[in-house]
Amino acid sequence: MVLEGGAMRGMYTAGVLDVMMEQNICVDGVIGVSAGAVFGCNYISHQIGRTIRYNLKYCRDPRYMSVRSLLKTGDLYGVDFCYHELPQKLDPFDQKAFEASSVEFYVVCTDVRTGKAVYHRCDKRDAEDLEWMRASASMPGASRVVEIGTERLLDGGIADSIPLRYFNRIGYHKNIVVLTRPRGYKKSANRFLGLMKPALKKYPAVIEAMAGRHIMYNKELKLTEKLAEEGRIFLIRPSRDLKVGRTERNPKKLKALYQLGREDAAARLEEMRRFLQ
Questions:
Q1: Residues 8-44: tens digit of each pLDDT
Q2: pTM of the predicted model, to two decimals?
Q3: Angstrom distance (rounded) from CA 124 to CA 18
Q4: pLDDT for 174-219, tens place per residue?
Q5: Are 66 and 77 in contact (CB under 8 A)?
Q6: Contact call for residues 260 and 15 (beta carbons, < 8 A)
Q7: What are phi and psi of 97, to 5 degrees?
Q8: What is the dihedral of CA 127, 133, 136, 138, to 10 degrees?
Q9: Taking Cα atoms as reference points, which of 1, 8, 13 lies closest to residue 243?
Q10: List of long-range contacts for 115-118, beta carbons under 8 Å, 24+ apart
Q11: Residue 118's beta-bridge partner residues?
Q12: CA–CA distance from 211 to each of 52, 137, 193, 197, 236 (Å)?
């Protein structure tokens, strides 16, 4: 299964995954990009409802996401709150279930020195793998570069937004692909790249990758749609555009998008089962 990012638009993916878990629809591998990584891990730990629950509860909490956090720490999403206090105390992530799962879990990051995608398999499923998930969701201009050993990483969507080719290359040939944009969407050039360049001046390869990201994304989208038409993948994406932004903090909008994911998945359950058979 391939899970696109989109920050808070990932509530759509959460709705799809919750229905799949409720219906015992299982896969043997998942690759997540950005929000697809940090929300998709709940599919691996089989925690139905966790993603939407904590996002509705804390989406307006400045510790979770705020300009104050960005100015104070360099991260729009508060690292200590989102990756420590929340999963360890406030809405515990089932680490034992995550470790025990036989589903292989991959996340995509971008190497800031090369601008190329880095694909990481979460084998150890420990604190370091959590850092890889955080790196995958660290949006340029809204997050600090994440350092893991010798790696220097940012959002995986910069270099590979829909990593279907990679998953095919390593042996996953029958894939469910969950997108967070509706039919007809095409990515445009980044209007804010000029504003982000000063913060990324040490990483010219990232600036170059971001400048061409819309071209890369639209090519990947075209391939995804082609494979879906040929019946080689199962593509699910929002059946309508609810106008939810990447940093959406309105709980009603987030819940509506989650519900749409549930509705779209439920409407296509039998089609999904036939595809997997």
A1: 999 999 999 999 999 999 999 999 999 999 999 999 9
A2: 0.96
A3: 25
A4: 999 999 999 999 999 999 899 889 889 999 999 999 999 999 999 9
A5: no
A6: yes
A7: -65, -40
A8: -70
A9: 8
A10: 115/158, 115/159, 115/203, 115/205, 115/206, 115/208, 115/209, 116/159, 116/205, 116/209, 117/156, 117/159, 117/160, 117/163, 117/166, 118/151, 118/153, 118/156, 118/159
A11: 109
A12: 32, 19, 7, 10, 28
70 and 23 Cβ atoms separated by less than 8 Å: no
C-alpha 76/C-alpha 72 separation (Å) is: 9
Token pair 């009603």 is at which residue?
A: 252
End-to-end CA distance of the chain: 15
Encode the chain in three state secondary structure.
CEECCCHHHHHHHHHHHHHHHHCCCCCCEEEEECHHHHCCHHHHCCCCCHHHHHHHHHCCCCCCECHHHHHHHCCCECHHHHHHHHHHHHCCCCHHHHHHCCCEEEEEEEECCCCCEEEEECCCCCHHHHHHHHHHCCCECCECCEEECCEEEEEHHHCCCCCHHHHHHCCCCCEEEECCCCCCCCCCCCCCHHHHHHHHCCCHHHHHHHHCHHHHHHHHHHHHHHHHHCCCEEEECCCCCCCCCCCCCCHHHHHHHHHHHHHHHHHCHHHHHHHHC
The rounded distance, in Å, linking the Cα atoms of 18 and 16 is: 6
- Residue 101's pLDDT is what? 96
Paired tokens of 264: 């779209």
The closest alpha carbon to 159, from 180, 134, 138, 174, belongs to 138
Residue 220 CA to residue 217 CA, distance in Å, equals 5
Give 51's pLDDT tier (boundaries 50, 70, 90).
very high
The amino acid at residue 75 is D
